[in-house]
Amino acid sequence: MHPxxxxxxxxxxxxxxxxxxxxxxxxxxxxLLQDMGEFYTPEEVQVLQDTALDVDMxxxxxxxxxxxxxxxx
Length: 73
Fold this sequence. Notes:
The protein is mainly alpha-helical. Helix content is about 65%, strand content about 5%. It has helices spanning about 5-15, 25-35, 40-55, 65-70, and strands at about 25, 60.
């Protein structure tokens, strides 16, 4: 991923990281994905989080997890 693209994704991630904790819930992930041009139903977002994004199984999506998934798509 180009550094400028990475920076843009980080800015968007931080916009939806409502607690500035470096992670987000499936609900906030849905808004982030829409902002990035990806449209999923709430159920699809939850499945995506549970099966592909939340690698460490903490119940949230962290920025590195999002980047790994985004680059693999």
